[in-house]
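Kindly review these tokens for lecture notes.

. . .
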Amino acid sequence: MAARYYDGVTADVQEVTLKVTSHELLINRSEDSGVVARWPVADLVVLGDSHHEAVPPLALRGSEARLVVEDPAWRAQLVSLVPALKPLALEPVKVPPRLGAYSLAIVALVGLFWSAVEYGTEYAVPLLPYTLQAKLGETVLDELLTDKETCQGRTGLAAINRLANDLAREAGYRHEVTVHIVEGGPVNAFTLPGSILVFYSDLIDQAKDSSQVAGVLAHEIGHVVHDHPIKGVVRAYGIDLLFKVLTGGYSDILSTFGTGGGALLAMRNGRAFEREADATGVRLLEQRGLRADGVSSFFEQLLEKEPSDAASAAGIWSSHPPTRERIEATKRPATGRPAFSPAEWQALRNVCK
């Protein structure tokens, strides 16, 4: 059974073969049959499902490594050996034959263009001057904060900015990160181009402990170090061009781009971005010896308040992975040092007072 293996640490891809026993999945290199990894069957998880994704990756709970099995027949064979992996081989949503035939040419064209946008972004972003990215981020921030109060507690702001930059440096990021705290809600945080992070105070107020705030912050730093915000902007321009082609020249993405809301919409992170930010955030916390369980416990808290899980209900249209999937992927023991000292945590809780 052939597959591709990503170790979650480097960008290398290995061609591997798989062998399933009663208790483990044995991963061997194709070239010399050397053992790459042994994954306990009980800890295997599927990220997503084949209802909504062509090839959902297979992962080991608590690890950033991934396996991709392209061949549907082999995925079905794997499911027959490990029934818990059923999401690997679900029947995709069927398109009526006539509609599928009629749309084939358009789908092929859109797919080709979309791939150019998707992968071209990786090459275009490094060419954009950082000063331009920072200016864009500041412009969007000004628009978004026009009618909002920002929190000015110096000690609390110093604490969260200190941790943000510690994590960014841990990832080898060379620019200064700035965190702003907006008074009120929603319970949310987001990242703008130019290493700008925005937290809402309701998120801090409703956090059960400092590890949850540190987990959300680490997730946002994951977006920063992977250049997700500016990649989102570049993709938005490419998608706008695609819409112009499909609609005969009309698209309102760029016409609304000047407003903070329009720019924020353009920078929404897709599932791949969110998964990458989750994994990176957890890894950075662990590398610094800090508690890394706050990421999953924050998601658990969200799920308690909203059991229906909007991301899961939206399916393929959701920009975020299902919350339960994210919990499983980021679960860590409650070990390690607190990210904030007791004095820093108290100051952060009072940052708006």
Remarks:
- The chain has three domains: 2-89, 95-127, 130-349.
- Confidence is low (pLDDT under 50) at residues 253-268, 312-318.
- The beta strands are 2-6, 13-20, 24-29, 35-40, 44-46, 58-60, 66-68, 178-182, 189-192, 196-200.
